Amino acid sequence: MKKIFIIILPLFLSGFLFSQKKAQKKPQKKAVTAKFNYYDEFKKISDEILTNGTAYENLGELTKGVGPRFSATPGYTKATEWAEKKLKEAGAENIWKQEVRVPVWIRGKESLQIKTASGDWKNIRMLSFGNSEGTGSKDLTADILLVKDIPELNALTSAQVRDKIIFVNSPIDPTIISTVDSYLIAAKSKLLSASVIGKKGAKGLIIRSLTTASDDVPHAKMIYYEPDDRVKIPAVTIGVQSANELEKLLKKQPVKAKLNMAAESKGETINYNIIGEIPGNKDAKVIVLGAQLDSWDFAEGAHDDGSGVVQCIEVLRTIKALGIANNHTIRVVLYANSENGGRGRDTYAEYVKKKDEKHIFALGTDSGGYSPRGFSLDMPPQRRRLIFEWKNYFLPYGVYDFDQTYAIQDISPLKKLDIPLAELVVDTQRYFDYHHSVEDTFDKVNKRELLFGATAMTQMIFMIDKNW
Q1: Are 402 and 456 within 8 A, CB to CB?
Q2: CATH number, residue 230
Q3: Which of 163, 167, 218, 256 yields a CA-CA distance of 20 to 30 A from 335?
Q4: pLDDT tens sequence across 113-135
Q5: Could you tell me if 419 and 343 lie in one domain?
């Protein structure tokens, strides 16, 4: 009996181990095959862009050749012609222009001076806020009233505010790790203040620039007036160093300011969204990529958002270069009037709704040409879970953050149409050093970082096209 047991036991164990090995082998083989295919496709995309990508050269043409491209200016018209040409070179099969009614706002000459203790007037570097009212090219002279934050501003009485130029000196919070979050918090509070103080009788508004930089370069933004504002006061921004010096001076003595702005609005005109696409081989469902084509009137707009423009074009070029047979239509929309109105984004969303086009995904990029870190996913949980399953394919490219849930720039109106949105997340620690300033120039963009951003975008579009 003992002998039989000794003989049977090895046979039993070998059969058991064989069955276990067999059971483990099948799913392992399946997982390796699936990973190998997608890793291979990701590598092909990366190799093509890092070796043959044209985004950096295109950005040089856009920023240095075209230059500033503010809405309703000859620069923007030149930019649309450039964009049509580049989309054609990239392989877009359908290219068209979409009419957008945009505001005509002219900055003109502008100056800000403060009166020193000696009685002399000292020039302060400044920029008018976009769409701001001017002073009619006349001097507006008034005492400056310092305010440190919005609660303090709201607590002021009309008697305290009347006939003053209000100076809001509140820096963006340096303790918030995400500079996008800190910027948005500051912008939402500060940019409503023109209406608040205008109703209380203030004559003008000076705001500390919304920037992470410590220099004295002003950073512009669009000013918002409430619809019922009967008096729209002029609003300007000054650099960080000037803001700090002005606060110190105000704590010692009263200070007068002399503001002179020729800024004025002159109705509306027609600009264009520029659209290019590669039709789908399977159906007419649309995957859309979006970036703003315009910049501020004084800026090259290299990071904001020339980088996004050339990255979107690079996605189309790469799909064509690799001979990828896309299932769905892949479309690039380069938006007009993002900086001082957002008319381009609204026009495109209205077009999609009217045409009843089926859009399955929208990807935007408007945070600069820095190293990609992930994708912010503004979509239902079940869609987010599908993308979460792809994380390992992105990890070798330094792309790991899929936890954020905003898509705040030009694709945002598409959310009302229940279209899943995503935004390229990049390392933004330097972005607000240059944002909306004369410092946002081509030399601030690193070629390899820019191309890696285009790589991540193309990889995401590839996965959406093949799996949705």
Answers
A1: no
A2: 3.50.30.30
A3: 218
A4: 999 778 889 999 999 999 999 99
A5: yes
